[in-house]
Amino acid sequence: MLLINNIRLSRIIRNTWQVDLIMIASCMGAYFVREYLIAYHFSVPTIIPTVLGTAIAFFIGFNNNQAYDRWWEARKVWGGLVNDSRSFARNLLSFVPPGDENDEIVKRMIRRHIAFLYALKANLRSTVDLIYVKYLEESDRMDIEKHNNLHNAILLKQSEDLERLSRSGQIDGFKFIQINEMLVRFSDQMGMSERIKNTVFPTTYSYLTKVFIWLFVVTFTLVISQEMGVWSIFMGWMIGFVFVSTQINGMNLVDPFENNVAGIPLNQITRTIEINLLQMMGEENTPPPVTPINDEYVL
Amino acid sequence: MLLINNIRLSRIIRNTWQVDLIMIASCMGAYFVREYLIAYHFSVPTIIPTVLGTAIAFFIGFNNNQAYDRWWEARKVWGGLVNDSRSFARNLLSFVPPGDENDEIVKRMIRRHIAFLYALKANLRSTVDLIYVKYLEESDRMDIEKHNNLHNAILLKQSEDLERLSRSGQIDGFKFIQINEMLVRFSDQMGMSERIKNTVFPTTYSYLTKVFIWLFVVTFTLVISQEMGVWSIFMGWMIGFVFVSTQINGMNLVDPFENNVAGIPLNQITRTIEINLLQMMGEENTPPPVTPINDEYVL
Amino acid sequence: MLLINNIRLSRIIRNTWQVDLIMIASCMGAYFVREYLIAYHFSVPTIIPTVLGTAIAFFIGFNNNQAYDRWWEARKVWGGLVNDSRSFARNLLSFVPPGDENDEIVKRMIRRHIAFLYALKANLRSTVDLIYVKYLEESDRMDIEKHNNLHNAILLKQSEDLERLSRSGQIDGFKFIQINEMLVRFSDQMGMSERIKNTVFPTTYSYLTKVFIWLFVVTFTLVISQEMGVWSIFMGWMIGFVFVSTQINGMNLVDPFENNVAGIPLNQITRTIEINLLQMMGEENTPPPVTPINDEYVL
Amino acid sequence: MLLINNIRLSRIIRNTWQVDLIMIASCMGAYFVREYLIAYHFSVPTIIPTVLGTAIAFFIGFNNNQAYDRWWEARKVWGGLVNDSRSFARNLLSFVPPGDENDEIVKRMIRRHIAFLYALKANLRSTVDLIYVKYLEESDRMDIEKHNNLHNAILLKQSEDLERLSRSGQIDGFKFIQINEMLVRFSDQMGMSERIKNTVFPTTYSYLTKVFIWLFVVTFTLVISQEMGVWSIFMGWMIGFVFVSTQINGMNLVDPFENNVAGIPLNQITRTIEINLLQMMGEENTPPPVTPINDEYVL
Amino acid sequence: MLLINNIRLSRIIRNTWQVDLIMIASCMGAYFVREYLIAYHFSVPTIIPTVLGTAIAFFIGFNNNQAYDRWWEARKVWGGLVNDSRSFARNLLSFVPPGDENDEIVKRMIRRHIAFLYALKANLRSTVDLIYVKYLEESDRMDIEKHNNLHNAILLKQSEDLERLSRSGQIDGFKFIQINEMLVRFSDQMGMSERIKNTVFPTTYSYLTKVFIWLFVVTFTLVISQEMGVWSIFMGWMIGFVFVSTQINGMNLVDPFENNVAGIPLNQITRTIEINLLQMMGEENTPPPVTPINDEYVL
């Protein structure tokens, strides 16, 4: 998540230089074709880039809207994880009567929940990140690693511990369903995150947009070169840049769990939950919040 | 679901060649009509295709938005099935106390749930796919096949087994309602899938869009042929192609349960749930995940 | 709900002939006014129909979006009725222990629910349709007919029978709340259907749209007749037809419970539920599904 | 809520005459300024009103969409009140066992709920309407009037009576939570209504729209007067009228609880609930439904 | 929240004067560049600002829609806090049987909830506002201040008191879950508020919009100066102002918890809840409602 208001030129160029080169080459091609071939035969009607502009505007707008929706939905899902993690810990801490064994189970479950979040984060970011192991007991860890889906396996463990509290009569049915409800919500949120990560945004939209922007830039340059001459190469690229940067902008949001500056700051969110939960358990040595990198973004 | 970023030309041509031929023929007709008839009487005002372009842009935008919404809703429904299937299995496994008979019921219910998913998938794809039988007991199967709606009949069986656990006191009321809640959600999700499958997207929209695109291509060619001559046939087709491919693109999403590359990858999702549930039951021989076809798409 | 891909010309003409005549007359008027009056004084600027086109595009788009939303919401509400009807029957059948009196109550409640659906359908379609009587006992029927709102009265009856099961100890509190929850949902869905039926889409939108399309057609014809002469009458009508048919198209969806080809196929949906519920009760003589009329549409 | 399809000219003029006069004066000013000042120095480029038109189209579209959403949300909230009021009465009537005292409490609660609706309606319409008193007992009334928020105070009374039923063992915990759930929903719906009423639609949008429409009308008249002469005054006003009436149209929906023809028909809805609830209690003398005024609208 | 219909000129100038100066300087620059450099070489095609206008219209529309959505979501979240605060107090007051100790706990919990709201408000507005301390007992306060997240710590305290009521048998499980449900909702609403506050609206959108508006103003002035001469500076600024003010307008809504006139009036809402809750507890000396500042806005 970017924190600053102005974007460095270097960042923009790094994102678009390949496309910029292709566009400048195309504009130059269009200029020369018109100057030395078309000019002697016919003039290019203005309505062609105008109509193409309409089609592109729809495409880019559509892509950006859907991309932003995916990004905002992902943010909401993780916001929900924050809220439910706190409620989960609060319920465990106040519902389970004090006592050595009980305290241990509660502590184990809250710590295991932090492990759940770290395992889920690592999976969404497609990284191998063993930080979750820190919050798991050795036996848990071995059971969990038999599963393809680690975070789902952790939830199963939570459910078993909760059942233990219920069967031994430490919590009654009413309290049981409220804590179990949180496990169901975690299952929903983890599945929703996986859905956003695993569903490819329909390729046809992003592919056709690229083709149509290219068509637009070429016909646009053909048309304006009739009035502007060689300056049309610069103008063609500039207008093309407006469309291309908008499109790239949207496509950066479409996979919100990627580990880049446009993504959801999972590191920061997970750490916030970690601190909240540890403090609720009365721990005083909590890790520091995630700080921005270069004062520019958080991950 | 397409996985690659670039779409093969062959795929595009396969999808649009008929429309392309019609458009080229129409553009040629328009060119000759203007050249040999209209040219001697009047000029065609540019405002006609411009205004038509606005109408078409609305239509295509509207169709694409609604189509994408159907597709994304379908994806969410099946995402919900993933989440609730895991919670269903997790609850059964941890709520029901161990014991020979109990273990058998739990196992039967989880396996029957996999059968439910396969039966629902076959129905949504309008295929006869007997894979669901594998996860059913013989007696279940015979009862179920008396019904028009197989997956609904399977849910009724689940409900009976759940009631058995409840009546024999293996699970208390609190646990009972939480498992039953999952059956209600499955009923909702199966009904939502059927709704998307069975509701025809209002034909008038797709039909009128086709008519208006054709009108646009013809009047557009009439107008630009005044400046471009015979080249207007090519340009008319090209701009028409932009609109047509966008429209076809959207219409490919409108029936997201079809067994094609644009649809929801039900095979992949069902298999994921199958693996998760089998592993949660402790089975080690799980089927492999669904792999992409040609590295291009999954079904 | 239309099932076919192409719409018969006869259907389109039947829907729009009055408007077509008005438009042709207006275009002719505009042509003659310009030819014999305006032409000698000033030319009509192209920007007038262009700007009007923008306003109309907004209006028609807005109307269509809201109309589609009403239609799709109506479809979702009845989809919800399908899902909850099945869950309601499933819960009753599995929760209530077998026994002569119990079986009778369960059967009565499920049949009364089918009556509820038929009574609601008749009300939404503003027809007198006594089919619901078939599924009611005589005493029920007499009580119910004292009420203005028949379907609400049926729900009250359901609630009384459910209370009977609860008070006699046949179902415990947990099962009770789950069945009662379904009655609450039916109450919601019936109220949502009534809301869509009884709320007139703001008249000002549809009225002003008609006025503005007329203004557009007239000024458009004024402008193009400067270049096209008498052919402008045809073109003016054609472009007007594009807008008018889009607008009429949307307005056909705005009242989705009307008994016409654009509406929600309540007959088909109700019958589907009827068959499902009868089969769940083990009845073998179920009525046939609703079949399309002329292979063209279902109601 | 307007019921008719055509809007009387008198109603439109009544709504817009002030703005119409301002626009005609502005168009005349623009005409004379161009004719006697600008004409000798430069011509006004068409692109100016075109670009302004785009900005206005966005603004008006945005305002109308948000206004309609507020209106439709308000309608949904009151639709929810209809549904939950019926469920509330149904639950009370069937859950509470018959008996003199019980019957009295049930009757008192249902009547008090009607008072709640009337008190809420009066508050939303900012009127003093003492009809709610009719359905309250004297002692209730005195307690309630100590509060700033009458309807919230009524809910507190309901909660106390419900607790009375619970504490005396007339209803068990399961039935208790279902009735209490309805009170929570009423609290939600009343708060949602207050939110819509009390949140001013951001003034900046409506204010800037007015300014930009005025700018548009002036520059539009400047441009078309170059071709149309004095007729531009009429045309400028006409196009301005199209935008202004659309904007006013939307702003009429933005406060849906106002007591005007565009608002939600709270009188009608409240009366419908009143009749339903009285009939459910077996009363036969129910007040008549609200009838349309002049066959034109209901309030 | 602004309450008046017309915005003072001074407020607009205060918000935009920097941008206005930049725009006027850019327009002057464009005018002179065209007059003394470009005019001798080529003419600038009108299509350039037209196409840029389309891109900008999309950007500004997108930004405004998302900004309004954030603002309205924030308003809904706090509306939900109003509703649930009332239900929370109502439930506590009617569920807990009278008695000295009980009354004290109930009073403490309701007062602590008011503290929760004030602490949350101070956090969202990034101010140090110790008003919440007034409603807390000394011991609570010391525990709470050990946490980074004060409002989360307050919820933990509430949960402990609720558990106390439950464990001592003052409220049964049914009542317990209903009050606890409210704590879960408060946790959700507080997390949702934090999400809106802490998620930076993607910087790329607001940054690129600024760049593109500037490009538009410059090319627009280049084009119209061909017809209007020096007046183009004024017109370029005016049209630029239309876009800029719209953009700034939207960006004022994007952080709805800021303590400015465009934000959600948290002071007013919190005070409303405070008054409602105190009156429900029977207190007669309630603080006055928040009054508008200058009759212009509330905070």
From TrEMBL, chains A, B, C, D, E:
Domain of life: Bacteria
Location within or outside the cell: Cell membrane
Chain ranges passing through the membrane: 12-32, 38-62, 205-224, 230-248
Primary location class: membrane
Alphabetic keyword roster: Cell membrane, Ion transport, Membrane, Transmembrane, Transmembrane helix, Transport
Topology class, membrane: Multi-pass membrane protein
Family the UniProt entry places it in: Belongs to the anion channel-forming bestrophin (TC 1.A.46) family.
PANTHER family named in the record: UPF0187 PROTEIN YNEE, VOLTAGE-DEPENDENT ANION CHANNEL-FORMING PROTEIN YNEE
Protein name: Bestrophin family protein
Protein source organism: Pedobacter ureilyticus
